[in-house]
């Protein structure tokens, strides 16, 4: 299989050091366009789309494989192996933080640093752990996706973006949801929102940055604090940026946080 075509892999930049940007649920690599220009001088940049997202090869979608985040993690590993990438800086938005975690644990050596943008290892509340949603909340969200996909996109996009003064960004996210294959997107949503990867966090042994936004309805502040507690030696930065997509709504602050971590 042509992995580069499967995941619509793009390479930018002039540096020898590699940084890989991985988009979140319902998004694609284009969402990083405000961030990547600040890294092209010093890094080789790897962008890609998960199967079923963006301009990936939808024919490569396999229901059994992608019924778990491990299937997506394997694709990340495949890209790294295909392009002979090692000691990569991995930047993952939202669920990609966990996908990157799984890839790093399955294939030690491919990543030397992890950068989590608005991460969550578990979205469902569980006793003392507050993930932000009840199981019933998320089951209802999936039901709306099944019955009224456009309505679901209209509902979720503003909740995720959380920047009403910039309606263009909300509309872009909504359009991204709507142009994705509904069946694949619903499966990805189910896998994302019902996974529990809290135990995997303790296994991370490489430098990790956690970027926690203000007023994030998807990954509330206590989740960022929890991740920081679980990963020994990790760095937690509480951003002024609001919402769940700071790389789109507040790119300058996001770039500054990433650069500061990489310069340490």
Automatic annotation (TrEMBL):
Does Hydrolase appear among the keywords?
A: yes
Q: Which part of the chain is the AB hydrolase-1 domain?
A: 20-254
Keyword Signal on entry: no
Say which domain of life the source belongs to. Answer: Bacteria
Question: InterPro entries recorded for this chain?
Answer: AB_hydrolase_1, AB_hydrolase_fold
What Pfam families would the database entry show?
Answer: Abhydrolase_6
Keywords for this protein? Hydrolase
Q: Could you tell me which SUPFAM superfamilies the record lists for this protein?
A: alpha/beta-Hydrolases
A single Gene Ontology MF term assigned here is: hydrolase activity
Q: Which family does it belong to?
A: Belongs to the AB hydrolase superfamily.
Q: What is the designated name of this protein?
A: Alpha/beta hydrolase fold protein
Source organism (scientific name): Cellulophaga algicola (strain DSM 14237 / IC166 / ACAM 630)
């Amino acid at each position: 299989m042509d992995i580069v075509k499967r995941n619509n892999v793009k390479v930018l930049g002039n540096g020898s050091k590699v940084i890989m940007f991985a988009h979140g649920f319902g998004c694609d690599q284009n969402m990083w366009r405000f961030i990547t220009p600040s890294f092209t001088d010093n890094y080789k940049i790897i962008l890609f789309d998960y199967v079923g997202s963006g301009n990936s090869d939808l024919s490569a979608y396999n229901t059994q494989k992608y019924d778990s985040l491990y299937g997506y993690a394997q694709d990340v590993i495949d890209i790294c192996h295909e392009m002979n990438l090692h000691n990569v800086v991995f930047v993952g938005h939202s669920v990609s933080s966990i996908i990157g975690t799984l890839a790093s644990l399955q294939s030690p050596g491919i990543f030397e640093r992890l950068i989590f943008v608005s991460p969550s290892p578990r979205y469902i509340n569980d006793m003392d752990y507050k993930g932000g949603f009840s199981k019933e909340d998320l089951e209802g969200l999936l039901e709306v996706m099944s019955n009224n996909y456009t309505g679901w996109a209209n509902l979720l996009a503003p909740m995720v973006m959380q920047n009403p003064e910039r309606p263009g960004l909300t509309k872009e996210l909504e359009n991204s949801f709507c142009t994705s294959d509904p069946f694949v997107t619903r499966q990805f949503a189910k896998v994302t929102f019902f996974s529990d990867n809290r135990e995997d966090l303790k296994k991370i042994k490489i430098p990790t940055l956690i970027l926690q936004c203000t007023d994030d309805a998807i990954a509330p502040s206590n989740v960022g604090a929890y991740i920081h507690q679980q990963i020994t030696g990790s760095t937690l930065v509480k951003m002024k940026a609001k919402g769940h997509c700071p790389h789109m709504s507040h790119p300058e602050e996001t770039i500054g946080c990433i650069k500061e971590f990489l310069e340490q």
